[in-house]
Amino acid sequence: MTSDAFLVRDSGPLHGEVVTGGAKNSALKLVAAALLAEGRSVIENVPEIDDIAAMADVAVALGAEVSRPEPHTIVLDVPPRLEVVTHPNLVGRLRASIVVLGPLLAREGRARLAMPGGCNLGNRSIDLHLAGLAKLGAEISYGADAIEARVDGRLRGADIELPFASVGATENLLQAAVTARGVTRISNAAREPEISDLAAFLRAMGGDIQGDGTSEIVVRGVDALAPAHHRVIGDRIEAGTFAVGAALTGGDVHITDVDPSHLHLPLEKLSQMGADVFATDRGFRVRGTGGLRALDIVTLPYPGFPTDLQPQFLALLSQAQGTAIVTENVFDGRFSIVSELERLGAEIELQAHHAVVRGPRALSGAIVAATDLRAGAALVLAGLAAEGTTVVQEARHVDRGYADLAARLTALGADVERRVDDRVAVSS
Ligand code: UD1
User: Fold this and answer.
1) Which of the residues are catalytic?
2) What residues sit in the active site (predicted)?
């Protein structure tokens, strides 16, 4: 089987301006949330990526009419009654599609979903989603390939304390609680900016939600929601990926249409490593100064360091002076990039959920594979700093979350292109 690959050649410093797209991890959940209200909802600043297309297909399978009247806008016409069964091929493509469980229970009182797919990142369970929904009154049964949930009458508000501040569970519970009877309190809720974006959309639909952005969210159930218009926030992870590219190449890049406060810790780390980072009126700017210094990184729920930027920082740290310890606390499978970076010449030692990076080591081009979305982006960045040509196979993983990555890096002066049938291209 062949798949597209990125061909990356050692490039000089990245220079210029890049516009951040809408946040993938918010837009996906907003498409699900639109199902909560009959009628036409409009979501703007939606990224043109494969995961969104997959979520739109899930919404269509549940009975919505979905149109894209112009790039970056999704219009959902939601019928009075929704389908409650999804085909395994659809939900299996995308793990985030588990968030339709809350809206389906709220609207129809029942749902049958195939077990979700998505990035292969070790143990990505959904027990917290299911336990929370059970507290709201749902009866849940699940086997190896499907989850069935139902509720007699309406969901009922409850006090739910999450043992871990799960983003997906918080989103599912918010959507289930917003039209439940009574008050729901979610303690140890996730605080990610994408949670606040979802809460803002639900409020625009008539929901009564307070405390989003903190670990204690209070939802007062309303009888029904109305459709709404919403603009998705900028994608902090995409912006952070370009920021790493600027620092890695010693470049100077203005990254616009994103709120730099959503990247507080990663930008702080970049500046401690030696890059100049400053906020602008439209986003922020990163200027590599050469001579990066190593430092330690520990991934944690927001406002901690995001797991979705960990692979990009591994690539960066391979070029920094000194020894860095990177600790991954969120996903087991997140170090699958390490063997690929080693192929390029990085020196990284794995010890359970710690990676010890010794740098700087000169990188040189090789054939590597994108093992997941963020690993793929990180390998493209590493290729910019590697001598010769780096081929990043399995580019389709990157398409799940980055629109036109090659073209946008090229616009900043990088030498990156897409090739079909990479294995032929490499051997020729
Ligand atoms: C995670 C990230 C989020 C990122 C998204 C996309 C965190 C905390 N979350 O969200 O920032 O945008 O990936 O890559 O960094 N877990 C359970 N049971 C559950 C739910 C989760 O054990 O029911 C565990 C997972 O196995 C994992 C951790 O909790 O170890 C993170 O889960 P969660 O925040 O729910 O993941 P996502 O919603 O995918």
Assistant:
1) 119
2) 119
Answer yes or no: pTM beyond 0.85. Answer: yes
Q: 278: Cβ below 6 Å to ligand 1?
A: no
Spans in the chain with pLDDT lower than 50: 1, 118-123, 422, 424-428
Q: 126 CB under 6 A from ligand 1?
A: yes
Instruction: State how far the Cα of 292 lies from the Cα of 286, in Å rounded to an integer.
Output: 13
* Protein residue whose Cα sits closest to atom 16 of ligand 1: 125
Nearest CA to ligand 1 atom 19: 126
Give the span between the Cα atoms of 300 and 17, in whole angstroms. 30
Superfamily grouping for domain 24-231: Enolpyruvate transferase domain (3.65.10.10)
For residue 90, what are the CA distances in angstroms to 1, 87, 119, 310, 365? 22, 6, 15, 29, 37
pLDDT tens column, 105-135: 999 999 998 765 544 444 458 889 999 999 9
Per the structure block, which two tokens stand in for 118?
């998505």
φ, ψ for residue 287, nearest 5 deg? -125, 115
Q: Which fold has domain 5-21+234-419?
A: UDP-n-acetylglucosamine1-carboxyvinyl-transferase; Chain (3.65.10)
Confirm or reject: Cβ of 332 under 6 Å from ligand 1.
no
